[in-house]
Amino acid sequence: MSDAATLESFRLADSFLPVGTYTVSYGLEQFIQDDRVEDAADLEALLSTYLRRQVGPAELVALRAAHAAATDGDIDAICRADRRLSAVTLAAEFRESAQQSGSRLLSLQTELRDETVLNRYAGRVDADEAPGNYAVVLGVVTALADVAVREACLLCCHGFVTGLLGAAQRLLSLGHTDAQRILDELQPVMTAVVEESSDGAVDAMTPFAPLVDVLAAEHERAERRLFAS
């Protein structure tokens, strides 16, 4: 990639990016409240499951489809991937969080860049013709910035894991060294799910993490919540 594309990928992966991902735990809060995640080992196992069962077979497939469609200027294909991702995401909190983060990223990028594809896609989202999921917006944004699709997928995985590690530090007695160790240990998993997602088709997205969906539904009805999801 060019230096500009590499620097853009760094910006998009930075926790400084104001898209609100620090407000979500994607069910982790409920796992901890139910004593299903008590230490770093439990957390690493759960994050691996998220990557293999949800991020890889759903978000990354949608990201790849959006990346290819944005490269071709195919707005309809972007919207199809976007709608399909929402359709296969069972937990209402997950859908809402993904759309809120996606909306913020899309708004930010349209302020920074005057791109025809981006503006047309934003118009579809504003017209409720597409939900504006974060993974899909990220696919569009990275394609327009000439960030290669593999790097975009790795960026998505890295951002997801670091976001949940940040949440875990507020919910568990998890030190910075343990967080970095988990991030390091999950690198092969991230690489594997990125490879596997290359064969995925939008119409055949297959996320399957039943316990995650059940606890996410419990979290929606929790009396006290630190995180939006």
TrEMBL record:
Keywords: Chaperone, Nickel insertion. InterPro entries: UreF, UreF_sf. This is Urease accessory protein UreF. HAMAP family: UreF. Pfam families: UreF. It comes from Haloarcula argentinensis. It comes from the Archaea.
